[in-house]
Amino acid sequence: MINNDIIRRLIYILDFDKQQALKMFTLSGTSIDEGKLNLLVTRENDPNFELCSDLLLNYFLDGVIIHKRGLPDSNILPKPCDRLNNNIILRKVKIAFTFKDTDIISCLKVVDFKVGKSELSALFRKPGHKHYKVCGDQFLRNFLLGLSKTLRP
């Protein structure tokens, strides 16, 4: 999945308007203007399409976490990741919505995507762990689709 698609889907899931979406970047310690946001949320076939960097997606996801859960007790903004993968994105969405494994499994059931607890826990392990599993695009896409159907039926 491309980062732009993830931002588009989360904006839809959270029912954000443009100002609320811009606020997510501000909450995490950066800012973009409305023109830049418009470029990020356009479809890939649009001539004005601009690919979203991992850093910008990370700022957006951190902003969603802060919006939904508040700042950490230390009041220090999290250090952004230079490189994101689907496992990190899934973890950040899980944190933002305070989901447990059963919540994720329920979202996936809505779209008829079956996953067990052990398979799911493998996605949240550290990359060096022997049971670590890479989160594929299909898994992340189905989770976000299930999340949207759950929160915006």
How would you explain this protein's 3D organization?
By secondary structure, this protein is mainly alpha-helical. The chain has 2 domains: 3-69; 86-151. Helix content is 58%, strand content 0%. Helix 6 (101-110) crosses helix 8 (137-151). It is globular.
Major sheet details:
none
Taking the alpha carbons of the first and last residues, their distance comes to 23 Å
Number of strands: 0
Low-pLDDT regions: none
Strand content: under 5%
The helix/strand class is mainly alpha
Shape: globular
Helix content range of the residues, please?
55-70%
- List the total number of helices: 8
* Rounded Rg: 15 Å
Taken together, the total number of domains comes to: 2
Order of helices and strands: HHHHHHHH
Average predicted local confidence, pLDDT: 93
Note the main attributes of this structure.
2 domains, mainly alpha, 153 residues, 8 helices, globular, 0% strand
Brief characterization of the structure:
With 153 residues, this protein is mainly alpha-helical.
Give the SSE map:
Elements: H1 3-13, H2 18-27, H3 34-41, H4 54-69, H5 86-96, H6 101-110, H7 117-123, H8 137-151
